[in-house]
Amino acid sequence: MSVNNSTTANNVDPKEIEKFSAMAEQWWDLEGDFKPLHMLNPTRLRYIEQGAEGLFAKSIADIGCGGGILSESMAKKGANVIGIDMAHAALQIAKLHALETQTKVQYQKITAEDFASQHAGQFDLVTCMEMLEHVPDPASIVQACCDLLKPGGTVYFSTINKTFKAYLMMIVGAENLLKWVPKGTHEYEKFIRPSQLLTAIDSTTLNCEDLCGVEFNPLQSEFVITKNVNVNYMLRCTKAL
């Protein structure tokens, strides 16, 4: 998963943008297509907050923010958040919801690479959650996230492992059987093994400090942090001083 310079300037899959734009109106429907994200958000927010030792007054860039679920929750913790995405419809929903909830968040339609070229070294934290598996060149996004960080800053990634279990859980189960998300939301070919992501991280000045799994606990009806990275997983990385 090396950086492909031919895709760096336009690391966008138009089909992915169209897919999430078509679902835009449901971003904040707690029982809609993005219900799994709403269920997951408290877990990933807690993971980010604990690793950062609090979010108050931290400058944060949320890469691939979509409709703003994570961006808005971090802003409510007192962080100064800029969310970026290339799906115009999703950003409009994010802006509208922030107005309705009186939450101070900035949103921009821009690629991660272009944003990094304009704001290099400006952020305490960068989050890139459930986004890497939707772009042609994930390693380019990893590099952009690194570039955005101040020395000593932290980036959080989450994505889906490329395993048969992930295929069964995320595509057969979540899309076809449980109907948690629309068919076609995920593509197995774009899933990313931890070893691939770590290789991309190793080519930057980031150091991986934590790798954990995320699993749904049906008894508690919530997502929990585990050591099992066979399906969903998250990483916390720090930029060298």
From TrEMBL:
Molecular function GO labels: 2-polyprenyl-6-hydroxyphenol methylase activity; 3-demethylubiquinol 3-O-methyltransferase activity; polyprenyldihydroxybenzoate methyltransferase activity
Domain of life: Bacteria
Annotated binding of S-adenosyl-L-methionine, by residue: R44, G64, D85, M129
Organism: Psychromonas ingrahamii (strain DSM 17664 / CCUG 51855 / 37)
Enzyme class: transferase
UniProt function note: O-methyltransferase that catalyzes the 2 O-methylation steps in the ubiquinone biosynthetic pathway.
The protein's annotated pathway: Cofactor biosynthesis; ubiquinone biosynthesis
Catalytic activity: a 3-demethylubiquinol + S-adenosyl-L-methionine = a ubiquinol + S-adenosyl-L-homocysteine + H(+); a 3-(all-trans-polyprenyl)benzene-1,2-diol + S-adenosyl-L-methionine = a 2-methoxy-6-(all-trans-polyprenyl)phenol + S-adenosyl-L-homocysteine + H(+)
Keywords noted in UniProt: Methyltransferase, S-adenosyl-L-methionine, Transferase, Ubiquinone, Ubiquinone biosynthesis
Family statement: Belongs to the methyltransferase superfamily. UbiG/COQ3 family.
Taxonomic lineage of the native organism: Bacteria, Pseudomonadati, Pseudomonadota, Gammaproteobacteria, Alteromonadales
EC number: 2.1.1.222, 2.1.1.64
Name of the protein this chain belongs to: Ubiquinone biosynthesis O-methyltransferase
GO BP term, pick one: methylation
